[in-house]
Every structure is written in C-alpha cells, then in structure tokens.
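Need tokens for this chain, all 403 residues.
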Amino acid sequence: MPPFPPGPPGLLAGVTVLDLATVGPAARCTRILADYGAAVVKVGPVPGRGAEPIRPPSYAYSGSRWLSRLAIDLKDPEGRAAFLALAARADVVVESFRPGVVDRLGIGYEALRRANPRIILCSTTGYGQSGPRAGWAGHDINYLAVGGYLAASEPGCDGGPPMAGATIADAAGGGMHAALAVMAALIGRSGGGGGAHLDVSVADGVLWLTSLAVDEHLATGATVGFGHDLISGRYACYGTYQAADGAWLAVGAIEPRFYAELCRRIGCPQWVDHQLDDRVQAQVREDFRAAFGSRDRAAWIEALAPYDTCVSPVQDVVEVVADPQYAARGAFVRVVASGGDGTAGGDGSPGFRQVGPLLAGMRPPEEPVVLRDPSMSDAAGLLAEAGLADGEIAALERRGVVA
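Here are the structure tokens for all 403 residues:
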C-alpha cells in the first residue's frame, strides 16, 4: 500500500505500518518509522461510533507529515474484515489498547497472523501485557516513578521528586523502545523468520534508562539515588550554575583534564587536585557558584565552551529553536498546511516550522513539507489497494463502517 502522500525515500521504504494509536508512545513510535521512510496509515475510530479518542493539536507529533488516514468501526464485522484485509498487505500493526482489547475486537495477534503470517504486532502499554500492574492506567510521570527515574533525580524545592521537563517515558522508554523492537523484528523476518508479537512496556523502557543505577545496586547493594555518584550531583564538577544575568550553565567536567581546565579558566586553580575529594565539595561548589555568578552566561560560554571544559548553556525552548547548531544540522523544517482543495498553503498561511526528521539515517525532506488536513481520508484508495471492490467500499461508507 503506497503512502498518501509519499515522504522522502528512507531506510524503511517499502514497509507499511497500520497505526491504531492517536497519542503517546505508540504515536511516537510510528512518527519515527514514518521519518525513516515507512508508509504509516493512521487507523482511527469512525466519528460518532463509540468513545471519542484523544485528538492532539494538529501540530503535535509532527502533525500529519507523510501519514495516510482512514476510520474503521472495528466492532462491526465488516469493519473488522476490512481492517484484516489491510493487515494482510501490511508489515506492522502498532496498537496501544489495554491488554486483551485487540483480542476482544478480533484483531489480536492470532487473527492478524491468520490474515498475514509475516505480520508484526507491536502492543505498546504502560506496564506490559503481563504482571500485577498490567491493567493499571498511567502516564509519563507514573512510569518515571515506578522505574526509579524520579527518585534518582534531584529533589524539587519541597524535597519531593521532581517533575520531568519532557515526556521521557513516552518518547524514549516507549516510542523509541517500540521503534527499535519493530526494526529488530523486521530484520529478523528478512532473515527468514516469521512475524512477531512485541510486548512493549513503557515502564520496562524506563527501567532500562535507569539501569546504570539499578545494576550498581544489584551488584553492590549500594543505595543509589541523587547525590550518590559523579553524575548524580555528588561533586561540583557535574551540575548547574547561575550566571550574573540570571541565566544558567551546565557543567559536565567528568574527565580530570577537563575539570582541571575548567578550574583554571574560572579562576579556581586551588581545586584542580580535589575533583573527587568529598571533604571539600561544599567549598568547591561555593567557589564555583561565586565564579560563575561574576559574569553573564554569554561571556562564560565564549570563555569556556570551545576549550574542553564541558560547559554549555541551559537553553529554554525559545533559545533552542534559534540555536545555530541545530540550524546547521537541519533540525527544523518549514511546513505549510494544505488547502481545502489539497493544494499547499490553500488557507493563505505562510507556514511554520517543526522538528524535522533528525535522527541518524533519516533523509531530509524537500521544503516546505505539506501537512494535510487531518480530517482528510484515504479510505477509498487504501481499501482498494487491500483488494476491496468499489461496490464493497461504497457500501461500507454508506453504512458508516468506514470513513
């Protein structure tokens, strides 16, 4: 099934993915797969039939960049048959229902495998398909909490666990985890293997992200948390400091030679030989704070960043999108919305920017990227590609089973 519209050619060109999710880790996963060249088809519920799904803002998850769309009532026998016809010609199905839901709908792994023995089903849930938490609801903060991430982070001003500034669990513990698993399954299948059912637990992914601390505890019995070691706030060489203008700098001078260079350049040479000396860390940190507080952030970046000190600015989102490094790397692409007639910029909008396909191996697109109206449907073309006759498709549309 060809993508509507096609994206740039990529490493996953020729792979077709049916995506039953609207938000969260599964949507992150299929965004990655689409940006690597896979043809991703968003399969949603028919409006007015059953519970309405969460509908993210049109710009979220890079909008509808290179995605096809159709709506199917999976509770209707003919709708279920239409979905299985799509799956028979697809490579991957990604879903994020509660455990057991796809089986009750008649589109679980066994049903999919009967339609397509080579299908890969990626089931993405908070806690996985098994275990005492399998039925629990949750979001990013919950998975960061149970996986040890929050407790290992610097406490907030009230002494409690912090609020993460990004959806780390959804994006890395879930989305990247799922995309990696799908790609591994595709490689295994290309070597002569069959399909697979991938049980992606976001909480498992967070545990993997926290595994350095967890493995240390398992091996040594140490109580690992914030302030335990070099990268968790125990030493002055790894932390954040406020400059004279109120802006902040991040310091990650782990290697002794980088730390020594930092000490000399900020006027603290007396601490060169005391990087990991616990007895004096409070004094080192106090002197570092005083030094960094004497000049504006821009002056410190000019004086330190190019000279192997591992110093960088702490940037907010406004600064990130203006950052010359990201500009040089082509991190952002210009997009325009399609008009009602399908033409680019039909609404007269000058367009806007969004994060582009920036992971290693992704192909940069021609700009501007045209974002289609998310209400547009490719149902007729996709179902025809799946082998349904025009009369069958028309009947399904009249009954409101597909849209």
